Amino acid sequence: MLITGTQITDQALLANADPKNIRGGCYYLRIHSIIPTGEEAKTYDPSKPTTFYTLEPGGLAWVISEEKFQIEDARVTALVTLRSGFTKQGMLALDVGLVDANFFGPIGSLVINFSKKPIRLKAGDEFFRVLFFQHGEAKDGQVPKLTSFTHSEYVEKILTDMVGGFSGTFLQTAEMEKRIREDLKNDITNRLEPDLLDKFASRFFQKNWLKLIGLLAAAVLSGYFFGVTDYLHSKEQINELIQNQLEALGIHESTSPVSE
């Protein structure tokens, strides 16, 4: 059976609950603080909680609830989900789910921004949505052991157990795509450039070696490479020498020395 409306506050299932956050059959949990991941987590001070945080695309952070659960009745279980407004923005909560009886304290979730835009998180914002269900009596040995945390203790547990293993931007897909593109481009260029140049040079010389030799011989004979053409020959004489050499090699005037 779903516990609805003022039954949530009447049964004191949440500490410091605000009746205004009750919406029909659910209650909206507010943000208490945000714990960054990666390098920022190493210097995070639980006594000075972060109350405003911008979650960049691909970024991760822990979000802690303002309300603290205090489910004493073993016949009650809570189901926590991420508010749909944040889901539509491209956010995913990794570990929301069931809250059993005998749990006293705030809840938190590691969230990821899968969108291409920053998402702003602020203390006091409605973030989680919780449903309370009443069910049959639990049998002996099935009732969870009592677990209790203050906000500071809960944050300390997260910092110790989880946060250190995550990079704050390990899912930044734009950066990953850029690096992959650059690596592929460099690899392909390094592999293909020498082969392409070798093949081009080889084919060019195979097809045009005779013509190139003819041009080189004509240029040498005319004094072209020695910078003395103005002293040895007139312009007409130079052209005549080159033309004679080309004709001797079977290359006519209308044919380009480097053509097929």
From TrEMBL:
Domain of life: Bacteria
Domain dUTPase-like, first and last residues per copy: 53-138
Classification via SUPFAM superfamilies: dUTPase-like
Keywords: Hydrolase, Membrane, Nucleotide metabolism, Transmembrane, Transmembrane helix
Keyword Kinase: no
Any GO molecular function: hydrolase activity
Residue ranges crossing the lipid bilayer per the database entry: 209-227
Pfam families attached to this UniProt entry: dUTPase (PF00692)
GO biological process, one term: nucleotide metabolic process
Protein name: Deoxycytidine triphosphate deaminase
